[in-house]
Amino acid sequence: MVVVAVAGLAIGYLVGRAGDGGVDAQEVSPTKARARDFYVPNSEDLAADEMRVIACGTGMPTPRPAQAAACFLVELGNGDKFIFDMGDGSVERLWALEIPPAYLDKVFIGHLHGDHFGDLGSMFVAGALGGRHGPLRIWGPSGQAPELGTAYAVQMMENMFTWDIAGRIGQTDTRGFHTKVTEFDYKLENQVVYQENGVTIRAWPAIHAIDGPVSYGLEWKGLKFVFGSDTFPNKWFNKYARNADLAVHECFVTVPDFISKWRATPEAALQVATQIHTAPEAFGKVMSEVRPRMAVAYHFFKDFDTTGPILERIRKTYDGPLSLAEDLMVWNVTKDEIRVRMALVEEHVWNPPMADPAIPPDPSEMGPFAEDRLGGVVPGYSDFIVSGRWEGVEDVLREIYREASEALGREFPYPGDDEGDGD
Ligand SMILES: [Zn+2]
Ligand SMILES: [Zn+2]
């Protein structure tokens, strides 16, 4: 027996289960530890046949500390990791999971609303600095015009960081400051968009705002994870998500709450919450068709007073297993069990260890290499800016170099000095 967020219509019983330390959950002692039912990042191995899914964003387009915008991480026992959507604020959650950024290099975008891809820039820069030494790989749909497709959006994002990249070339390891985009036809119906290492990911159309959005299904070792991104209920999801192990689908705030809390006009609330998105009652009907082992509802602000009405409305049309997602909810999925918990994360995280070491900066890259990378832009300092350097700090900075050379047992020449002349 496991604890699920909401287990059918029945009450979920917590039955003693061995914790990671082998402690019985029922054993109570004034000095001995009891089993804990949290996921603590970097504390559990993933079994060879196990899938771990972590919600790294479950909210809406306006920022709130409690919930980042759409993002779900899928980790597989074969070592592969996939990210579905990367909404604003989600990269902070991903870093809290203490995963070496080199492993977070595959992102699947369901559609190009900011709350579903707005943190891609953070991932592009932070990942490159944190140890992703290859390109950030991005999959996403085309649109009705080239400018409405994923490749255009990513190219513009990279262009936006022209100064950022110019300011790092020759000064740090910049091998990760690249993207590799696979844009596919948004009209594909359950066609393969990714197939590597025993993992197959298919895409099908979603109905949301304008043409372009898609949903994804990931299959591996007989397990199936489905991610809807945003969509009005549609025939493709009902068909291709059927019998998924974990089916993530949006479930919007109720119309009364959207009017009173978001302060939408009734006209806009009805349009947005029932026609552009999926209303809770409609979410329930979709899941009654799909019949997953676990339905996951997200894309609502989950508060003490919004959650009840959403659950009530879902339960009018669906009585199966259900998780009302919030950030850092964790699902461990195997053939035998779906275990649902919350993650307990450290807020003061540093970057995790690098999967492969960084290389020291190569100042020679500041010349033609940089110009080439940046399309003719010549980075660097002008004589004017160099003339503003205050020489009054040179003595203390030289001392830092001397200190490092002594502590690390090799000579670090002060910039501008001849090689080997450290003083
Ligand atoms: Zn959207
Ligand atoms: Zn959205």
Question: Can you offer a commentary on this structure?
Answer:
By secondary structure, the chain is an alpha/beta fold. It has 3 domains: 1-36, no CATH class; 39-343, Ribonuclease Z/Hydroxyacylglutathione hydrolase-like (Metallo-beta-lactamase, Chain A); 383-423, no CATH class. It is 25% helix and 20% strand. The chain contains 13 helices and 16 strands. Strands 1-16-15-2-3-4-5-6-7 form a 9-stranded mixed beta sheet. A 7-stranded mixed beta sheet has the order 8-9-10-11-12-13-14. A hairpin with a 2-residue loop joins strand 8 and strand 9 (199-205). Helix 9 crosses helix 10 (307-315). It starts with 37 loop residues before the first strand and ends in a 15-residue tail after the last helix. Mean pLDDT is 92; it is low at 6-10. It binds zinc ion (2 copies). One zinc ion (ZN) is lined by residues 70, 113, 115-116, 230, 299.
